[in-house]
Design goal:
This protein is mainly β and 239 residues long. It has one helix and twelve strands, in the order H-E-E-E-E-E-E-E-E-E-E-E-E. The protein has a twelve-stranded antiparallel β-barrel with strand order 1-2-3-4-5-6-7-8-9-10-11-12. Strand 6 and strand 7 form a beta hairpin.
Length: 239
């Protein structure tokens, strides 16, 4: 399922992920709007909220993912996503949850690795029919953090087909200024044609509120899954 694949990777960056998280001490940072996860988590006793709208050829998606770090090295993400088909008005709602921990900090070293484990379930289904996944995000920091290279490898279990499949992602971020950055990435599941995405992010309020936009599609059979997205990320102060 295309939606489940994106849900897993986006959740795991809140990071999506988010799959997904932003390290507030870096200029170039993984997180929205990237699908490929980074090897970081939110800072201790901080929270963040990611929300975005994505428009595809035949459907619209709304996302809201919140993450907090209460213990120092364990990030908890809870969220919700809704996909609506424009023809017929059919919709699907998923609740998502993820735990993520850092195994090696890339801010202290030139590279780092993390572990993310999560689940997603259709809100109309039973929790014993949930999908789940495990993901290893790896990040290399280049030129004092001006460029970040992210690589993801993981495994997902589909709740509907009851089948397992591999997940992967490869992304590059480049900081233009202290407030703006560009990125390009490719990602997907092993048994599907890969997707790509490119975009930009800008801090409206430095290290607090970020605006992002992106465009993506599949490498083959182009225009079939073309999409645009716009969203924001909000970081809390220390609690």
């Amino acid at each position: 399922m295309k939606m489940q694949s994106c849900t897993i990777l986006k959740l795991s960056q809140v990071s999506l992920l988010m799959g997904s998280s932003l390290l507030v001490s870096m200029n170039a940072q993984a997180g929205r709007p990237m699908v490929t996860d980074d090897a970081g988590i939110t800072e201790h006793r901080h929270c963040q909220l990611e929300s975005w709208y994505q428009r595809g050829r035949s459907s619209d998606e709304q996302w809201a993912l919140g993450a907090c770090n209460f213990t120092g090295n364990l990030e908890l993400t809870l969220g919700w996503t809704r996909e609506r088909q424009r023809q017929g008005g059919l919709s699907e709602n998923l609740a998502v949850m993820q735990f993520k921990t850092v195994l090696r900090d890339f801010e202290e070293h030139d590279w780092g690795v993390a572990l993310a484990i999560g689940t997603e379930v259709n809100r109309k289904a039973q929790f014993n029919n949930a999908g789940y996944y495990a993901l290893l995000p790896v990040t290399w920091s280049v030129n004092d953090g001006q460029q970040l290279i992210h690589f993801n490898l993981g495994l997902a279990h589909d709740a509907e087909s009851h089948e397992n499949d591999g997940l992967w992602g490869l992304g590059l971020e480049h900081a233009l200024t202290s407030r703006s950055s560009l990125f390009v990435e490719s990602f997907g599941q092993f048994d599907e044609d890969p997707l790509y995405q490119l975009g930009a992010a800008y801090w409206l309020v430095p290290q607090r509120v970020q605006l992002d936009v992106s465009y993506g599609d599949r490498w083959v059979n182009r225009d079939r899954d073309r999409f645009f997205s716009i969203g924001f990320v909000w970081h809390s102060t220390r609690f």
